[in-house]
Specification:
Blueprint lengths: L3 E8 L19 E2 L2 E2 H11 L4 E6 L4 H6 L4 H6 L4 H4 L3 H9 L1 E6 L6 H7 L1 H4 L3 E5 L3 E4 L6 H12 L2 E7 L9 E9 L2 E9 L10 E9 L3 H7 L10 H9 L4 E5 L3 E4 L3 H12 L2
Parallel strand pairs: 1-4, 1-6, 4-5, 8-12
Antiparallel strand pairs: 2-3, 6-11, 7-13, 8-11, 9-10, 10-12
Helix pairs in contact: 6-9, 9-10
Length: 274
Amino acid sequence: MYKLTKCLFPAAGYGTRFLPATKSVPKEMLPVLDKPLIHYGVEEAIDAGLNEINIILGRGKSAIEDYFDKNYELETELADKPKKLKLLDPINKLLARGTFTFRRQGAMLGLGDAIFKAKSMIGNEAFGVVLADDICDSQYFPSVMAQMVETYNKYQCSIVAIMEVPISKSESYGIIDGDEVEAGVYRVSKMIEKPKPSEAPTNLAIIGRYILNPDIFPMLAEIKAGAGSEIQITDALQKLAEQGKVIALKFKGKRYDCGSVEGYVEAINGFYNK
């Protein structure tokens, strides 16, 4: 059984759908109410027991490093203003519960490349992957990552989170096919990255939550860049799926696609009205 305490956050992208705001502000730092996008994912990971947080950065993303660090000057300035100082509690509690490591991706060649670049950070361990674009609200259930950890502990292989989507939107997702081995749990036989609706085997789409065993790294080493000169994680996972080593979990909860302006606004409204 692999140790499972680490979580990877690929955060090197440009966030072009939010330009011009993301020209100087990392997309992951855009606020949903009073916390940035990435805060929600880190909180979810730590709540699930993955308290070693590894973040892959790109150029111009130093604000993420600053956020996950103490700001002694600000706390000194607010020392005599306890109500305002208390507003820092959410981030300070995360800092107390987790450890944070950062490295640069360099050339941005897709999610698969970002995960491969994290090999030296992960070592020979299982690890979670959270895409900060996706905020998952599991108000009435354990968090999505906690659900995945439970599934990983049972099956001991790589896990992808899935949800049903309209088949007309298949070109926006990686789509899986497989056999349902228990309610909401599938042994994956096929994974296709962004298929046309006519070529999609199901309407079960992968979202930005994974738990990966370290056997993903040799698979990624063999993958060649495809469309857009990117290395797709689904291509590497397909190789593992052919060996029966990938499980898909239809999670309980609501996912907000904050990679789009529409989804981002929906998330703000959703959290405001909770």
